[in-house]
Amino acid sequence: MDGERVDRSYCGSYSHSVDDEAVEYAIRVARATRRANLELFAAGSDFSSLRAGGLVVPNDLSFEVRTLHMGLTRGSRIQIAHVSAVASTGVPVCVRGMKGVIDSCRSAFRSSGNLRFLQVNHSSHTEEWSEDSGQWTESGGISVPAMTSLVSWDETLRCAKAMRAARWAVIACSGRQDAQFDPREIVKHHESKPQAPTFPPCLDEAREQYDASLLAWGRDIKEWRRVGAERPWNDAASHSDRHGFVGFVQSVEGQRAKVALAVAGGRNLRMDYCYQEGGNTLTGTRVDGTPYALVGLDSVEVSRSLIAGELCCERTDARVSDSAMKMFLALDLGIPRDQAETSIAFVEQPGLFHLDMKVMPLGRGQVLVNNASAARKLAVESGFAPESRERVAIEKRLEDDVEARLISAGLSVVRAPLVHGTDFNFINGQPFVHDGEKHMVTNGASENLQDHARRVFHSIEPNLQLTFTDSEAAKRSLRARGGIRCRVRGEGSRRV
After folding, report:
1. Which of 114, 197, 342, 359 is deepest in the core (most CB within 10 A)?
2. Contact call for residues 441 and 90 (beta carbons, < 8 A)
3. How high does pLDDT run on average in the chain?
4. Residue 244: which pLDDT band, with cuts at 50, 70 and 90?
5. Burial of 124 (0-12, 13-18, 19+ CB in 10 A)
6. Please, what's the largest Cα pairwise distance for the chain?
7. Is the backbone of residue 435 left (phi > 0), alpha (psi -120 to 50) or beta?
8. Is 71 exposed, middle or buried (CB count within 10 Å of its CB: 0-12, 13-18, 19+)?
9. Region class of 75: left (phi > 0), else alpha (psi between -120 and 50), else beta
C-alpha cells in the first residue's frame, strides 16, 4: 500500500513553489520502482510480488471531498468560468498556475475563502484538463498513468486502435442481415497477429485512415473523412476513429502536472502498471460499501500492449489475459486482490473517446448512461441540428452494450437523454459530498435544457444540489472535447 498521508494541505495561506529538478527526480524514482516490480513479476509471474497502490477516491456520490484541484494556463478564460462555478459551491478549491498567470487571473475571481492558489515554476506542472493525468488515493497519495517512450507508444496505439475497430464492427453489425462477412474474424485476426495489425480487403480504407490518424487526438471532428458509409462495418470503423483515442496525456507527458502536485504536498507518488487516463476509468461504491471500477476497453488494450512489450511476451500470453489485466488494474486502483475479478468491469466507450462523456457513476451501485436516440429527439426540440441517424444508431448500439456489461457486473443502470454531441452534456459532471450535502457541478446549457437535467437528476437523487457552469464556457469547452469533469480532480475519502 502507499505511504501514510502527510497531513498538510496544498492550499493553505501560502504558495508552494515547485522545482523542476525535484519533479524530474520523482519521475525517475517512480519509473524505476515500477520497472523493478515488473521485472520481479516477469521472473515468477506472481502477482503477490507486485506492490499495490492505495484505494483511489471514488467518482460517485460516495466521494467525500477535501479539496478539488484545477489548473490555470495562459489565456484561460474558459477555465476561469469553470473555476468560478466550482468555487461557488463552497467546496475548497486549489488552483495551480505559474505566477504571472495567477497574478493576471486573481481579479477575475470573486473574493472567496475557499479558493487558494498554488504557484508552479514550469508550464508542464499545471494543466486545464486535470482529470486524466493522475488521481488521489484515500490515504493522500497520488498515482499517475504509466510513462513510456513515444517510439513504443506509436505501436501500442496502432494495435489498440485496430482492436477498437474490430469491436465496434461486431457491435454495429450485430443482427444485421446485409453484412457480407463475419466481423468477428477481424477480432480473431488481430488476436493472432497483434503487433502488426492489418484489415481484410473490405476495410482497406479504414486501415489507411488509422495509419494516418495515430496520435491525432486534438483534431477538429469535421476534419475526419467518412469511410465507406454505404457499408455498416466500414461506417463503424470510421465512426470509431472520428471520436478520438486515449493517449493525449502520454503524448504531452501530462503526468508531470500530478507529479508536481505530489512534490508540492510531500505526498507519496506511485506510477501505475497500466495506462489509465482518468476519464476512462470510473470508480464508485456498491450498496454494500465495496469499491468497483469501470475501465474503458481502449485503456485495457493500450495497457495490455504496453505491459506485454515490457514483459517481452505476446498479447495472447496468460500474463496479460483479461484476468491478469484486472489484477494489474486492481493493484493500481487499490482494490483488494481477491476482489479484482468481480469489482472491475471492462466497458466499451459508447461513441466518445472516454467513458465519462456518456457514463456517470452516481448513487451507490448505480450508473447513469446516455440514451442517444432520445437525446437526438431532445436536441431537435431544442433547436439544434441533429446528428445523423446513422451515427446515432451506432452510438445507441454502443450504449446498449455498455448497459448490458454494467448489468452483468451487478450494477443498476439508469438511461436518460443527457448528451448530444457538443450541444449539451450533463453527464460529464463532478459529483461530490461536502459538509454532508450532495452536490453536482455539470456543464451549462439553455434554461430549458437545464430544467430537463434537474428533473432527471432529482428523480434519482432528490436532494442533489445542482450547479451549472456558464453556458457559453460550457459550449466552448465541449467543442474542445471535454466538459467540467475533465477539468477537475478531487482528493478526499469514501463515505462508507
Report:
1. 359
2. no
3. 82
4. low
5. middle
6. 67
7. left
8. buried
9. left
Asked if 59 contacts 479 with a C-beta cutoff of 8 angstroms, the reply is no
CA-CA distance, 303 to 56, in Å (whole number)?
Answer: 18
* Residue 68, CA distances (Å) to 41, 117, 208, 481 in order: 36, 12, 42, 21
Residues with Cβ < 8 Å from 293, sequence gap 6 or more?
A: 281, 282, 283, 284, 329, 333, 335, 343, 344, 345
Q: Where are the beta strands (DSSP E) in 181-322?
A: 269-271, 281-285, 291-296
Sign, CA torsion 292/34/66/71: negative
**Which cell numbers hold the place of 436?**
454532508
Measured distance between the N- and C-terminal CA atoms of the chain, rounded to whole angstroms:
20
In 3D space, the residue among 1, 116, 113 whose CA is nearest the CA of residue 54 turns out to be: 1
Contact between 275 and 153 (Cβ < 8 Å): no
What pLDDT does residue 413 have? Answer: 98
Q: Phi/psi at 320 (nearest 5 deg)?
A: -130, 30
Cα separation of 103 and 7, whole Å? 28
The C-alpha cell of 285 is what? 461504491
Separation CA 365–CA 314 (nearest Å) = 36
| Nearest residue to 93 (alpha-carbon basis) of 111, 117, 109 | 117
Q: What is the pLDDT of residue 167?
A: 76
**3-class secondary-structure state, position 7:** coil
Beta strands in 313-405 (DSSP E): 344-347, 359-361, 366-370
Helices (H), 271-316: 297-311
pTM of the model: 0.86
Residue 302 φ then ψ, to 5°: -60, -45
The DSSP element (H or E) to which 450 belongs, if any, is: helix 447-460
For residues 406 and 413, is the Cβ–Cβ distance under 8 A? yes
DSSP string, 32-75: HHHHHHHHHHHHH--GGGSPP-PPBPPSSTTEEEEEEEEE--TT
The pLDDT value given to residue 379: 97
Lowest mean pLDDT among 195-204, 337-346, 454-463: 195-204
Torsion sign, CA atoms 29, 30, 31, 32: positive
Cα 154 to chain centroid, rounded: 20
For the chain, domains (ranges, CATH) are 63-147+253-494 (3.75.10.10), 150-247 (no CATH)
Reading the block at residue 139, the C-alpha cell is: 490515504
